[in-house]
Amino acid sequence: MSAALEPGWLNVLEPEFEKQYMKDLKAFLLQEKESGTLVYPKGADIFNAFNHTPFDQVKVVILGQDPYHGDGQAHGLSFSVQKGVTTPPSLKNIYKELETDIEEFKTPNHGNLTAWADEGILLLNASLTVRAHEPGSHQGKGWEAFTDQAISQLSKQKTGIVFLLWGKFAQQKAVLIDETKHTILKSAHPSPFSAYNGFFGSKPFSKTNAILISEGRQPINWQIS
């Protein structure tokens, strides 16, 4: 699996692939495949978050829990779905907040966030795979240790990253982040169940850009074509 990783990420995460938990995870995924179980995303897309946002280019991190489990949705980026698939409710709410937060933002007709990943936003799920139509089915199999290590390495080796932690699950990852070197912006999750409890009106996108500009860095172009 390590060969599929962007070189900068491979440099910091390669030791993880030799650890027992990753060997166990690989065996589990092979067992899923051999049993005919449908797993999302497809193998080539599992590490898309890392490969679209190289380690040395990460400016922002948006954390999700696990991939979408519906047909054709997941492609390795948190909150993102492939073009041609209905935009999920949480992402619709993200777009709603963007329209009020970023004056020039216009909601696109799709939910593919690859443009954000290419802008330097690491769209990272805690678990990188899931069984089709079984949410959370690959939690506790080892992915969390791997993605926690990714967050920890960003915290240790980089400075000035903005971490957007939406909801309780993401906010539990704050312990991995050195707040003397990075900024954490917390709010409710954009899910329809919680968006009105503090996500709407939190202005995470303009706040992120203000932080980047204050540090002399290029702000994020949030518009998606």
UniProtKB/TrEMBL annotation:
Keywords: Cytoplasm, DNA damage, DNA repair, Glycosidase, Hydrolase. It is found in: Cytoplasm. The active site is at D66. Its EC number is 3.2.2.27. GO terms for molecular function: uracil DNA N-glycosylase activity. It catalyses: Hydrolyzes single-stranded DNA or mismatched double-stranded DNA and polynucleotides, releasing free uracil. One of its GO terms (biological process) is base-excision repair, AP site formation via deaminated base removal. CDD domains: UDG-F1-like (cd10027). The keyword Cytoplasm applies. InterPro entries: UDG_fam1 (IPR002043), Ura-DNA_Glyclase_AS (IPR018085), Uracil-DNA_glycosylase-like (IPR005122), Uracil-DNA_glycosylase-like_sf (IPR036895). The keyword Nucleotide-binding does not apply. Residues 51-212 form the Uracil-DNA glycosylase-like domain. It is an enzyme of class 3 (hydrolase). GO terms for cellular component: cytoplasm. Pfam families: UDG. Excises uracil residues from the DNA which can arise as a result of misincorporation of dUMP residues by DNA polymerase or due to deamination of cytosine. Belongs to the uracil-DNA glycosylase (UDG) superfamily. UNG family. PANTHER family: URACIL-DNA GLYCOSYLASE. NCBIfam families: PRK05254.1-1 (NF003588), PRK05254.1-2 (NF003589), PRK05254.1-4 (NF003591), PRK05254.1-5 (NF003592), ung (TIGR00628). This is Uracil-DNA glycosylase.
